Write the structure tokens for this entry.
Amino acid sequence: MLPVLVNISRAGEAPFPALLHRERALALAHWRDTQLRHAHAMAALLREWPLYAEALRHVCADPATTGIIERHGVAIAGYQLHAPAAPGQVYCTIGNYQAQLLQAALDAGDGPDGPQAAARQAAAAAAIATRRREGTPYICMKGSACVAGPHDELQVPDDLTTLDWEVEIGVVIGRTAWRVAPDAALDHVAGYCVVNDVTLRAKVFRADPQILGTDWLQSKARPGWLPTGPWLAPAWNIADPGTLELSLRLNGELMQSGHAGDMVFDIAEQISYLSQHTRLEPGDLLCTGSPAGFGSHYGRYLRAGDLVEAGVSGLGVQRVRCVP
């Protein structure tokens, strides 16, 4: 595995960015003869990604680097892992996996075994094809205060009985993107990470007034509702993000399993669309949609005591314990 970026700390110390290889980590500042000697905080590293990216890529590509980490690095088990992103803005793409949309259609109405199930699924498939051909991504915003570490506890109060999971590929922007074309969009990516877009299903839709539709503030915006990490894989580690595989386990049981190739709008299309309407800045985070297998499908939501393991191939696995 090529080195990846982690944001780590020891008790009483400020977090710092490091390169991780085979469970050993070494601070970026170790490379004193490069620009990385100034990289003392992950937030600053990402905000100024164009300043650091060339030096970091050179260090990661150097065959000697893994040996340096093994000799001079420390065991990652002795450190706390923090979120490898510190975004100014967080964006979430909604309804972006075909299998999840088809599953939701089957679950609606008279259920997956009802007489209207086949018709609903056919209608959903046709709508997906039309949207893919003629439509655009549906993207909301989520507060940066939601970002949490990959092993942080997730509070589940007794009155929140529909708290749900959504494993996703997170995309961290590395270069300002304003009105970029899809074929140039990935040039603006710093790296990729795992995110879990925790969502309170009962608050997704508002009844007052109905015309306003979805309520992303109540359903997605509490602190801790976006576990992020365990690491950030630089964009040069991921030859094709469309090949990434996602999974989520609840207490060891597989609940979600999907493939980025099932996206209605791929990552480049999402970045391009966003950049037509807002300026994406280095450090911003885009959550790119979640595959089938939500808690709403199983009728089983998060509760205290649960262990949620969300992972993406090449991006690691986060382990979050739910607490009262």
User: Anything to note?
Assistant: The chain has a mean pLDDT of 96. The two ends are 37 Å apart (CA to CA). The chain has three domains: 4-82, 90-96+137-323, 106-133. The CA atoms of residues 82 and 319 lie 12 Å apart.
